Structures are given as structure tokens and as C-alpha cells.
Amino acid sequence: MTPHRGRGLGAWAAGLPLAAVSVVAGCRAAGTDGITPVPQLLAFLPWLLVPTGFALLCALLARWWAGLVWGVAVLGLLAWYLEPYGTAGEPGGPPLAAFRVLTSNVEFGRGTPALVPVIRRRNPDVVFVEECERTCRAVLEGEFAHTHPYRRAVRAAGSHGSLILSRFPLEPAAGVPGTMGMPGALADVRGHAVRLQLAHPMPPLPGQVGLWRRELGRLRAFAATGEDTPTVLAGDFNASQDHAAFRRILDTGLADAARLAGHDRTASWPARTASVIGTQIDHVLLSRDFTANGAHFLRVAGSDHRALVVDLMLHPRE
């Protein structure tokens, strides 16, 4: 192979991944989720540093200086968006009530047996469970009938069922309409009203990106209402901070508890590889009435999601 041909192949090896990554990074910069496969790749935006680094090496070896400049620009753009998104301000008033929240997607109920000891060990006050089908609901309601006697559920099979368990009294709320169950409630947290809403929009599968975007839009509409009432919006959002549809929810004034606790990029899915590679699509979002004192992502055997436990403090508004 001649040196000229070798440099040409190196330029192609650099240009192809740079072009693909540039499309995804460009959508991130433009504030759009685009079309398949962009939404799926946006979930793993930090990991696009790997093909970008490979492209830079190929451009350097091929002495393709324009490609090298291109790669450095893309690398800088990706690095910029590694920064956490959303508000991080904290209320200044004295604490009114402390409580613990857990959210877990149990993958068609398969993670239910492992979730039971997690709940007992972590002792959350409010539990949000996604993909909690009928058997899952029966097990959890039976196991925690005395400790968490209040509940709101969407009773359905497979991934469509969902459940909220609570130590605090609950009043029914309309919830958010969706393909999968998203129940809501108004909790009496030691004398203070708190809106609870479970989130579980459809994932951005090929052919269903529009539906995913609409259901996240409904969650945004919920977040934008009831500004006078403290709000906890928790669950499997099937979206990360790199998705524009998710950032629009944060733009209503909600803050991500994991970000407040210093875990803005800790992966929650897929659970098997989350310690190495993954994305954070399970969230607990809070109105400005709360501080988050800790966040922990926990392995739940049988589920493809990690559970998320956060310690919250409710404050008065100034």
C-alpha cells in the first residue's frame, strides 16, 4: 500500500465517525432530539468521546489536518455538554420535614423479589415502582401493608403497571396519561402537602420517538402546573439530561436530586454494565422546596435498571 493510499484510508476512518458524532452533538447543541438513531445515541453522549478520540488518532496518523481540527472541535463540544444541566439552587428556609424516596423499575415485575429486601433495608418513606404488574403489586402491597399502608396504582399487566407506596396519607390525583401507568397522589408529609407523580413514558424506540416525545411533554405540563405545591416527580423517564425533551421538564424549575447530591452522570441503565458504561434515565425531580442530602443507585437483581434512593428535606418558601 502506498503512503498516499494509507493516508486516504486513515482520513476515511477518521471522517466517518466524526460525521456521525457531529450529527448527534449538533442536535444536542441545537436543542433537538432529532430522529432515529439520534435520540438513542444522545442517551450515551459522554461515550461518544471514544469514537471521537479514535477519529482524532486516525486523522493524526493520516496527517489530515482539517480532520484533526474538526475532531478537536467535536471533542470540545462533547466536553462542554458533560457539565450537569439544570438548576442547583437550594431553599434558604429552615427544614420542615425529612423523608426518603426510592424509585425502581422492576422490569416486568422480575425484580420484585430482590426489591423487597432493598425496601426493608433502605426504609424509604415513599416508593415508586415502574413495570409493576399484578403479581408485583400483590407482593409489595402484602409485604408492606403495615409500614406503607397508603398506595396509588395503575393495575395492568407487564410494563404498563405502576405503584406508589407511602407511609404518608395519600389523596387521589389524576396522574399523567400515558401508554404505561403513571399514577399520581397528594401526600400529607407531616402536615405539609406534597405532590407525588410517577414517571414512565415510552422509550424512544425506532418508530415511537414521537410518542416518547409527547409523553415527556405531558410530564412537562404536569411539572409546569401546581407551582404553589411542593412536587416530587420520580421514576424511569427513559431520557437523560442530554435529551431536549427531558431538559424541558427541568426548565419548569425542577431540579434533579442526583445532580444536587453530586451524581449527575451516575448510570442507572442498563444495570449489568452501569458500573462501566450506561446512562442515567431514572430520576427523582424536585421543586425548589427541597434539598437532596444523598443519592444512591442500587442493584436490584432481576431488573435491568438500578434503583435510586434519595434523602430529601422539605423547606418553606421564602
Which keywords apply here?
single chain, 318 residues, alpha+beta, 9 helices, 6-stranded mixed sheet
Summarize the structure.
The chain is an alpha+beta fold. It contains nine helices and twelve strands.
Please provide a written account of the structure:
- This protein is α+β, with helices and mostly antiparallel strands and 318 residues long.
- The protein has helices at 3-30, 38-42, 49-61, 65-80, 112-122, 134-143, 209-224, 244-250, 257-260; strands at residues 97-105, 126-130, 150-154, 162-166, 170-173, 184-189, 192-199, 231-236, 255-256, 282-286, 290-298, 307-314.
- It has a six-stranded mixed sheet with strand order 3-4-2-1-12-11.
- Strand 1 (97-105), helix 5 (112-122) and strand 2 (126-130) form a beta-alpha-beta unit.
- Helix 7 packs parallel to helix 8 (244-250).
- The longest helix has 28 residues, at 3-30.
- The protein is elongated.
- The mean pLDDT is 95.
SSE blueprint:
Blueprint: H1 3-30, H2 38-42, H3 49-61, H4 65-80, E1 97-105, H5 112-122, E2 126-130, H6 134-143, E3 150-154, E4 162-166, E5 170-173, E6 184-189, E7 192-199, H7 209-224, E8 231-236, H8 244-250, E9 255-256, H9 257-260, E10 282-286, E11 290-298, E12 307-314
Parallel strand pairs: 1-2, 7-8
Antiparallel strand pairs: 1-12, 2-4, 3-4, 5-6, 6-7, 8-10, 9-10, 11-12
Helix pairs in contact: 1-3, 1-4, 3-4, 7-8
